[in-house]
Design goal:
By secondary structure, this protein is an alpha/beta fold. The protein has one domain: TIM Barrel. Helices cover 46% and strands 11% of the residues. It has helices at 9-12, 15-20, 41-47, 52-55, 59-73, 86-90, 127-140, 152-161, 169-177, 179-203, 220-226, 228-239, 256-261, 275-282, 301-314, 335-348; strands at residues 78-79, 95-98, 102-105, 145-150, 207-211, 245-248, 266-268, 287-292, 321-325. The strands form 2 sheets. It has a 7-stranded parallel sheet with strand order 1-4-5-6-7-8-9. A two-stranded antiparallel ribbon has the order 2-3. Strand 2 (95-98) and strand 3 (102-105) form a beta hairpin. The structure holds coproporphyrinogen III (CP3). Coproporphyrinogen III binds at residues 33-38, 52, 79, 81, 83-84, 97, 99-103, 148, 211, 213, 328.
Length: 351
């Protein structure tokens, strides 16, 4: 089903959703990838003794953690607290998120026989997501909630490698060496990802972000041939709901146009490409999201303000701009620096 989902009017009229739709905004909206998490002492407190994946399955805890950065920083959107591997865990893949390491998959997916382990995701597999989003939208009022999922390539990178990697040698070996198996793997992951995003939208998420964090490791021709079809499938599957679709990856300067063509309404940009240049690469008809280097937050308030104004200046000719960091908040970031940054964006990004 793809009934059009219309959020309450106040949410629909929020600066964040307006910017995603490339409508005029009263101020540049801002949120941060990984705004909920270890940078916040209140997060570390409520997570104490609870493993990461377990915390993603407790609706009250998810609600509290998702709301923490909204209360503290006055950001313009909340992002649902979860992880990209949650839907894989939900269909029975044996994996864990190891502190300081990331997702680790017990038995990597390497052969055609392994594909049988990737069954379809049903809403019942993630009933805690539906429940948590119900609690959240009741608390959030006019503040939009962003749902998210990992994109097929980035999920495949964990599944095939068995854990985090810098080179993705097993995943890329499959992509180059057994293109049929690779295509079938990505197609399976596209269905799982689309189902997971649909659950979030139907529960009340008013935008979705597809994280293809590690896709910048690919050349454009390989992206177009071996990855883009699966991402297109995900975006097409959720298009009918009418919620903005954001597409993000790191080191994607050479892929920006294709990532927009995959079907996003908003293209996320890391700090390596200035937003005016990114807009030329993406082409017309898309909003952009980004792109302050997250390490700038360690340099002191004057530097943060100056670098933020550079980002806002580069975005001044864009039709739609959502301010964000170029990648996630780093755990050692001073939360007060983030609160000040929101204020700088709201003050200087005013129209
Ligand atoms: O605030 C938010 O942005 C929502 C929460 C969120 C988490 N993971 C929580 C989390 C989001 C959006 C993600 C997405 C995610 N997970 C991505 C894509 C975004 C990106 O950073 O590029 C990726 C690649 C993952 C995989 C993953 N999960 C990694 C690399 C790690 C970090 C490992 C570590 O400990 O450094 C995780 C664990 C994770 N996901 C944490 C959080 C808050 C840390 C675990 C903890 O707090 O104990």
């Amino acid at each position: 089903m793809s009934a059009k989902q219309t959020p309450p009017q106040a949410t629909y009229d929020s600066a964040f959703l307006k910017a995603c739709r490339r409508e005029p905004v009263p101020h540049t909206p801002v949120w941060f990838m990984r705004q909920a998490g270890r940078s916040l002492p209140e997060y570390r407190k409520v997570r104490e003794g609870i493993p990461m994946l377990e915390s993603c399955m407790r609706p009250e805890l998810v609600t509290e953690i998702t709301l923490q950065p909204v209360r503290r920083h006055d950001v313009d959107a909340a992002i649902y607290f979860s992880d990209i591997v949650v839907p894989l865990k939900a269909i029975g893949i044996d994996l864990d998120i190891k502190p300081g390491v990331g997702p680790v998959v017990e038995e990597p997916v390497r052969t055609r026989a392994d594909l049988a382990r990737l069954r379809d995701l049903t809403p019942e597999d993630v009933s805690y997501v539906t429940e948590a989003i119900g609690l959240l939208t009741a608390e959030l009022g006019a503040t939009p909630l962003i749902g998210f999922a990992g994109a097929p390539f980035t999920l495949a990178s964990y599944l095939v490698e068995g854990g985090p990697s810098r080179t993705y040698e097993n995943a890329k070996a499959m992509m180059y060496g057994d293109p049929e198996l690779w295509a079938d793997l990505l197609d399976r992951l596209a269905d799982i990802t689309a189902a997971f995003l649909t659950v979030q939208i139907e529960a009340g998420a008013s935008a979705v972000q597809l994280f293809d964090s590690w896709v910048g490791s690919l050349a454009p021709a390989d992206y177009r041939r071996s990855v883009m079809p699966a991402s297109v499938k995900v975006f097409d599957a959720v298009a009918g709901h009418g919620v903005p679709r954001i597409h993000f990856g790191v080191g994607t300067g050479e892929l920006l146009r294709l990532m927009g063509e995959a079907g996003a309404d908003v293209v996320g940009v890391d700090w390596r490409v200035p937003l005016d240049e990114a807009a030329r690469r993406v082409g017309p008809g898309k909003a952009l999201q980004g792109n302050l280097d997250p390490t700038v937050l360690f340099a002191g308030p004057e530097v943060v303000e100056a670098k933020t104004r550079e980002v806002l200046d580069a975005a001044s000719g864009l039709e739609g701009h959502v301010f964000n960091l170029g990648h996630g908040v780093m755990p050692s970031t001073d939360p007060d620096a983030l609160t000040r940054l929101v204020d700088v964006v709201h003050t200087h990004g005013a129209r």
